[in-house]
Amino acid sequence: MLIPFSVKNCFQLLCNHKVPAAGFKNTTKGGLMLQSISNDVYQNLAVEDWIHDHVNLEGKPILFFWKNSPCVVIGRHQNPWQECNLNLLREEGIKLARRRSGGGTVYHDMGNINLTFFTTKKKYDRMENLKLIVRALNAVQPQLDVQVTKRFDLLLDGQFKISGTASKIGRTTAYHHCTLLCSTDGTSLSSSLKSPYQGIKSNATTSIPSLVKNLLEKDPTLTCEVLMNAIATEYAAYHQIENHINLINPTDETLFPGINSKAKELQTWEWIYGKTPKFSINTTLNVLHEQSHLEIKVFIDIKNGRIEICNIEAPDHWLPLEICDKLNSSFIGSKFCPTETIMLTNILLRTCPENQELHSKWNILCEKIKGIM
Amino acid sequence: MALRMARSMLAAARSLHATPVLAVPNPPWPWPRPRLVRAGVIRALRMGRTLLSERTFTHKHEWITTKTDTGTVGISNFAQESLGDVVYCSLPEVGTKLKKQDEFGALESVKAASKLYSPLSGEVTEINEALAEIPGLVNKSCYEDSWLTKMTLSDPSELDDLMSEEAYEKYVKSTEE
């Protein structure tokens, strides 16, 4: 279903933004600019989905500005275990989201600007959008050396990536979104995007790591606010529309009917982890127990985020074979997830003989297994 | 093959309780004379073409070839060129039931993630496992080695809505203008 972007909708938007009522007549002509008042990555991704599914963009492209509190966003066909440090994300309260567009993994925080260019499929042109951003940056700081690469990255001084791009093409509409590094926490970015997980074999699309830099480090006048306004000015000039950004609330069901269920879906385990392409883990866990060093072989096949094949092999002088067998068979079909593993292994432990030494070995094994999830 | 078709067309015509199209059981020509052809016979003719696995196309650039009630689905050369290098193929599970135009997967390329739409209604019976290892096969051999799925057809009459190769080429030219 395509909904023409009506003046009524536009007026509703304008209620959130201080413009004289006379201004709204020209706003929808040739395009629109929106900015989310939310910093929730799932709500903001839901806005993208909603506009992509419901808005007729013929002659009316949209530019959407959004920023998120700390999170990692993986591409549609990526493997989060390969792309980031999930244990760290959980410890630090950094959210993980899977977007619907392709491409690689990115770290977002309030120092990163996200830009989404919505157009019809025919007008989809990433180069045009990125050139617009470069013009905007040079309008603020003419000395800035920013180039668009063949991979549609933006490179500062020929070596530092300041923007990455991804896209989605649907029946009649398309969107191109990109990041812009302004003042992001570089330490958090590096540590979040460094995967500690070994032995993963997968056909998922992988990210290409790059050296990054914040624009603010290059020039202290390039704050998020300054950059957003510069890009908005350039977009308005290019599309001959009025230069104002409409604030939108992504949880407003009157403006975006059905959007909250989109946001909800994006937060489900089934979407974030369950959509990971089939992969296998083939690794060895090293255990130090009472001054002896042991190797536990692990072979797990995971499909739709769930364990299909499980072969955990501990030396049987350390842990009886039948206990490992019990563990392996009980894992089949369960989520590859520490929470579910804890639950499962606790239940199983109750069926093991009451033996302190055995229980302590069991706990060591389970902790190690949890560590790879 | 032609004689068998002629016989089946005769049977179809008779079942319409109309004057038989052909007075003799074994006509010397494979097709009835055009002015005597009735709607049901045209349908039988089209079904006959299906038996010969002619490739037909959708407006969304998917193609399908059919053999009796099974179809093989892929994307056209225009589609693979437009996509650019394919880096990932997301295909449905075997057993997935689809209605015509249902989204059944996606191709991620350097350009974007693009959805795939089912040309016909039916059930997925096979997916091309080679594409998991070599997604780029879609760019190299979109009509042969990189078929995407095979499916049973629940409503073969839907084939009537698809374009022949010639019509599709014309359609693509018109969209490029």
UniProtKB/TrEMBL annotation, chain A:
Pathway as given in its UniProt record: Protein modification; protein lipoylation via exogenous pathway; protein N(6)-(lipoyl)lysine from lipoate: step 2/2
Keywords noted in UniProt: Acyltransferase, Mitochondrion, Transferase, Transit peptide
GO MF annotation: an example: lipoyltransferase activity
CDD domains: LplA (cd16443)
Localization of this protein: Mitochondrion
Class of this enzyme: transferase
Assigned GO CC terms: mitochondrion
Gene3D superfamilies, A to Z: Bira Bifunctional Protein, Domain 2, CO dehydrogenase flavoprotein, C-terminal domain
Ranges where the BPL/LPL catalytic domain occurs: 57-243
Catalysed conversion reaction: N(6)-[(R)-lipoyl]-L-lysyl-[glycine-cleavage complex H protein] + L-lysyl-[lipoyl-carrier protein] = L-lysyl-[glycine-cleavage complex H protein] + N(6)-[(R)-lipoyl]-L-lysyl-[lipoyl-carrier protein]; (R)-lipoyl-5'-AMP + L-lysyl-[lipoyl-carrier protein] = N(6)-[(R)-lipoyl]-L-lysyl-[lipoyl-carrier protein] + AMP + 2 H(+)
E.C. designation(s): 2.3.1.200
InterPro entries: aa-tRNA-synth_II/BPL/LPL (IPR045864), BPL_LPL_catalytic (IPR004143), LipoylTrfase_LipoateP_Ligase (IPR004562)
GO annotation, biological process: protein lipoylation
PROSITE patterns: BPL_LPL_CATALYTIC (PS51733)
PANTHER family: LIPOATE-PROTEIN LIGASE (PTHR12561), LIPOYLTRANSFERASE 1, MITOCHONDRIAL (PTHR12561:SF3)
UniProt-listed NCBIfam families: lipoyltrans
Job of this protein: Lipoyl amidotransferase that catalyzes the transfer of lipoyl moieties from lipoyl-protein H of the glycine cleavage system (lipoyl-GCSH) to E2 subunits of the pyruvate dehydrogenase complex (PDCE2). Unable to catalyze the transfer of octanoyl from octanoyl-GCSH to PDCE2. In vitro, it is also able to catalyze the transfer of the lipoyl group from lipoyl-AMP to the specific lysine residue of lipoyl domains of lipoate-dependent enzymes but this reaction may not be physiologically relevant.
Family stated for the protein in its record: Belongs to the LplA family.
Protein name: Lipoyl amidotransferase LIPT1, mitochondrial
Organism: Sciurus carolinensis
